[in-house]
Amino acid sequence: MSVELQDVKKIYRGSKTPAVDGITLKVEKGEFFVILGPSGSGKTTLLRLISGLERPNGGKIKIDGEEVSELPPSKRNIGMVFQNYALYPHKTVLENLIMPLEGSLGKKDAISEAEEISKKLGIYEYLGKYPSELSGGQQQRVALARAILKRPKVFLMDEPLSNLDAPLRVSARKLIKDIQRENGITTIYVTHDHVEAMAIADRVAIMNNGRIIQVGTPEEVYNDPVDEFVATFFGNPPMKIISGRVLGLEGKIGIRAEDIEIGDGELVGKVTDVEFWGDRYLAYVNLNGDVIPVFVSYRPKVGSEVKIKLRRYKRFL
Ligand SMILES: Nc1ncnc2c1ncn2[C@@H]1O[C@H](COP(=O)(O)OP(=O)(O)OP(=O)(O)O)[C@@H](O)[C@H]1O
Hints:
Elements: E1 3-10, E2 20-27, E3 32-36, H1 43-51, E4 58-63, E5 66-67, E6 78-81, H2 93-105, H3 107-120, H4 136-149, E7 154-158, H5 166-183, E8 186-191, H6 194-200, E9 203-208, E10 211-216, H7 218-223, H8 228-233, E11 240-243, E12 252-255, E13 260-276, E14 281-287, E15 290-296, E16 305-310, E17 314-316
Helix pairs in contact: 2-3, 2-4, 3-4
The structure holds adenosine-5'-triphosphate (ATP).
Adenosine-5'-triphosphate (ATP) binds near residues 15 and 45.
């Protein structure tokens, strides 16, 4: 199912500034769409509006072409995983998982599906426990399993992996993506983690102050950010913005760490620090007072002078 927003607005009562400020957007059927933005940019509010947990002050929300703005959450065929897990506290993990399935599948099949997904998410051993006996990350995985088992037409996920540590985060996001792809579930996924966004998105929207600043594939947003905000928010490390004067240009230029070559070139800088990144090093080079991150294949000496060539840069006026 597609999800469409037309000039959607939300101003919370007592607030002067809108949390969501006139958003127009179409998420296509089967698409994995990521919303990325800093804290307070309106990401959660946007998801709550789509789910029906909040009512917009203006605009239209359509699911599969039909306006749903007046429909309650239960009528929207949406599966949600939010930061707070909303599990039933007096039911075991297994009972929490099979509840949405029992009606359609019967108990035996519901249990076997719940067991299968629990194994994939590493929560099989907790099936007999109560939510209060689990850690935050374990509860989060139960909530995720429950949402997956419901097989919704649309998935809304708000930082569903925020409580997981790094290796589990990577495997859980792969599982989400696999299930999403296999079942063609339209997914809108909120995160403030740009690495996660780049890894899983078909398209990504960058939000700030209740507005969408740019929408595109991860490659488009990475290679061609529309402004300095997007340039410095997306990428690892973020694009470095410096005065164009170093190249004799007006305005500012943005440089990515992989677009600089050390060892040759007209510009001279001084290495101020070096980080080991596993497959390469990230050197910080002071160029006329600006410290620029540069990827290099060897560990340059801190304090040494290096020649620099800019292979590519983005101009901002
Ligand atoms: N229930 C509420 N009542 C009043 N203001 C709210 C409410 N919920 C959110 N806000 C405000 O709306 C704005 C957007 O908040 P929202 O939670 O949507 O942002 P976010 O991008 O999801 O942030 P985070 O990444 O920190 O979760 C913020 O300024 C926030 O303070």
